[in-house]
Every structure is written in C-alpha cells, then in structure tokens.
Design goal:
Blueprint: E1 7-8, H1 19-28, E2 32-33, H2 37-42, H3 53-65, H4 68-75, E3 80-83, E4 86-89, H5 105-112, E5 119-122, E6 129-133, E7 139-143, E8 147-149, E9 155-159, E10 173-179, E11 184-190, H6 194-203, H7 208-216
Parallel strand pairs: 1-2, 4-5, 5-9
Antiparallel strand pairs: 3-4, 6-7, 6-9, 8-11, 10-11
Helix pairs in contact: 6-7
Length: 218
C-alpha cells in the first residue's frame, strides 16, 4: 500500500496474549503512538476500578508480562499528539484523560468543538466511522469501512476501528490509510488468524470471553 509511517491510536495492549511483542514491534517500526486506557492501566496510570472484571483481569495479567523497558514505553506515551497537522488521541479530544466513547453523531459534534485541527484520528470505541463537517457547517456521520476524499474547507473526525478486537460484528481487523498527497482517508478491513488469536488468549489463562468474542466481532 506504500505506507511510509505507522500511527497507533492507543491500546497497544489490553486483551491480547502477546503484549510484550506488540510493544516491541511497534517501537522497532518507529510508530507514532498515543496512550490508551489499557496501556495506562497496565502500568498503574489508570485505576483498575474503571474497568469491568474481564478487562481488569487482563490488565493485571498484562502488567505481569511486560519488561521494565516495555512498561516504561507505555507509561511515557502521551494522551495526544500532533502528526502532519492532524490531532491524534485514543478516546476523544475533549477530556481525553477521562476516556469518553464517541458512538453517535452527537458525540462527534461535541468532540469536533474541542479541537482546531482540520482532522482528528481516534479509536477507543472499536467502531470505525467518519464524522464530516461540511462547508455549510452541516454534520455528516457514516459508520463502517469507506473512503473519504478530504476537502480543504471541511473538518473531519475519524475513528479507525480496531486491529485487535472489532465490535461491529465483523471479525476482520480494521485500520485506516491516510494519504496526505491524495488528500483521502480510507478505512479498510483485513482478515487475520482469529482462531489462533483466540487459542493464545485461552492458553494464557485470560478470560475465555476475550478470545471467544473475536469470532463474533463483538
């Protein structure tokens, strides 16, 4: 696809069975990354009582797997970053430290008022979507994989979905390609070995739900 740089919008770790190798891989690729709530939870920067019992158990297990260098890497990830004129955040540009979910057109409208950049990329809800503010200030909201040509006079909020645990009923991994020269964003889906990911989660002793839900994309 000609991708020149990798951006990770948080939650490098959290539900999967290979947290350490994931951190090492992204670090070795020079990925630009912001912190997710699971990243901070695994290093004690977000209280575990914020999570349900399954996520809490996963955070505790993840913490035990990380080396000192891997934990330090996660602990030093910022909540927000600017990259090529775009704002990067895990949850929302409005109160990112509170980890709010953006799920509706109304959620996006509120978040768009919290930053001045032309475009903001985020994750957290695991649901791919694009919010678009047109020239006439009307808001458009579209879920799912699609390609959007970026108009110079418009603003955008892009949820790229989730590589590791989609929740829109499609087990395929979600990601986005941002083409700066072509002025476009495309949210894409790609298959991966879901059964093996599930097997590894079960073998690690993590809650079985975290593996089983991968098959349903929920």
């Amino acid at each position: 696809m000609g991708v020149e740089r990798i951006v990770c919008l948080g939650d490098l770790v959290g539900y999967g069975a290979d947290p350490g190798p994931v951190v090492d891989l992204l670090a070795s690729r020079g990925a630009v990354a912001v912190a997710g709530n699971h990243d901070y939870a695994s290093v004690g920067k977000t209280p575990l009582d914020w999570f349900n019992s399954y996520a809490r158990r996963a955070a505790e297990w993840t913490s035990e797997q990380l080396t000192a260098d891997q934990a330090r890497y996660l602990a030093t990830l910022p909540l927000t970053l600017e990259e090529a004129g775009a704002l990067l955040v895990h949850s929302s540009p409005r109160n990112p430290e509170a980890w709010p979910y953006l799920l509706s057109a109304e959620d996006g409208a509120e978040a768009l008022s919290a930053f001045a950049h032309r475009i903001c990329f985020l994750g957290h809800s695991h649901l791919p979507a694009i919010w678009r503010v047109r020239e006439d200030d009307r808001l458009e909201f579209a879920r799912g994989p699609h390609r959007r040509v970026l108009a110079p006079s418009e603003r955008y909020l892009v949820n790229v979905g989730s590589v590791g645990q989609p929740r829109d009923g499609d087990p395929h991994a979600a990601y986005a390609i941002w083409d700066l020269e072509g002025e476009s964003v495309e949210i894409r889906r790609v298959p991966y070995d879901v059964q093996e990911a599930r097997r590894r989660i079960h073998a690690a002793g993590l809650p079985r739900l975290l593996g089983d839900r991968l098959l349903r994309g929920r």
